[in-house]
Amino acid sequence: MSTVRFLKTDASIWCLTPKATVRVPRTLDDSAESSHALTGLTRRLEERGLMNPPLETSFSATILTSSDCNFGCYYCFQNVADGGDGPPDRIARTQLTDESALKITAYIRRRMRSQQRSTAKILLFGGEPLMSFGPCLTVLEDLSDVLSHASIITNGYLLTESRATRLWKSGLKSVQVTFDGAREHHDTMRTTRAGGRPTFDRIIQNLRRVQEATSLQISIRLNVTSETVEGLPRFLEQAAELDASQITLDLAVIRDYRWNLSSSSGASVKRTVDTLLAMARESIAAGFTMARPRNGGCSFCGPPPGEGGAVIGPDGTLYSSWETAGRPEYAMGTVETGYLSGGGEKWQSCQGFSSDHSPDLDHAGLVQDSFDANLLDMIHAPRADGTAP
Ligand code: SF4
């Protein structure tokens, strides 16, 4: 299935297809925003072969190595109930073992064969994946001859130098860590599940040591909410000990009920976007690379069911997306039985699940789209000498 994401600024219409990012200057095509014109644009992109995903040779597998987490974030999509005075209740705890890791890698090899994929792209995911550290190594080492890329999404608290070095030597290429804005915000939201302790300084220290000991690519996702947005620039000072030249920074607008209550007008969207653009400018000046806005296609949950990718729980249960993983009502089979027949109604892409469960996604989406569009204008602005960047 082909998808295109249109983003607009006063100067440009950006078309993000699975294969390319194309800019249509608004000065040249003032009518380009009409749905008729966008349909014509889509047809021209199709004619040039830019609408279909590139030919994929890798099978993409997300493996939840632990559904448990050592943090207790109130907004986690894996929360199932308010925990009262304590942290929220989560999806049921399961941990990957070496035995189930080998069943999962055998399944990935079978899917590679049946889908004619020559390599595997692996994402280690949780909960907090490092709570099952040994089995993470087992997965990487058992697939070492077919790995095209291996990454991990971790909260960073357990990412010590020695763990990172062992993962890197076993084939891990990249790490994504999330912060909830500057330290003063992060430490009120991303606290340890046991005891509610702050985590910002330890994560920064871990990342600095990881940079010294390995060549892992590091991506920092900076969550943006109504509470964190104004304080974002302080993050740059607080993370100054990191080598920014080796880090990609992603400003991610997340769902936030308070935001909707306090800022539903277009003016507040603009103010928020202006703040984010100022942050992006400062980040680039500090040496960070800004993450490029994406098309929105997902190799893990895009083509149903399990054609090009799979999402696999710690016990080998198959799901359709990160969002549904760990929820029994969305189980779609196991690595031993394969996908259940007739499970089509349980198939939820990550985007589909988010829009069904996030009533305020429209506001967050407006901010993210406007920021992404203006960020593209910024990144692609001609240099002072008039040459293209
Ligand atoms: S660190 Fe991630 S998985 Fe853990 S509670 Fe927070 S958002 Fe959820």
From TrEMBL:
Pfam families given in the database record: Radical_SAM
Record-annotated Radical SAM core domain positions: 55-299
UniProt keyword list: Iron, Iron-sulfur, Metal-binding, S-adenosyl-L-methionine
Gene Ontology molecular function: iron-sulfur cluster binding; metal ion binding; oxidoreductase activity
Domain of life per record: Bacteria
Classification via InterPro entries: Aldolase_TIM, rSAM, rSAM_sf, Sulphatase_maturase_rSAM
PANTHER family hit by this protein: ANAEROBIC SULFATASE-MATURATING ENZYME HOMOLOG ASLB-RELATED (PTHR43273), RADICAL SAM DOMAIN PROTEIN (PTHR43273:SF8)
Entry protein name: Arylsulfatase regulator (Fe-S oxidoreductase)
Organism: Sanguibacter keddieii (strain ATCC 51767 / DSM 10542 / NCFB 3025 / ST-74)
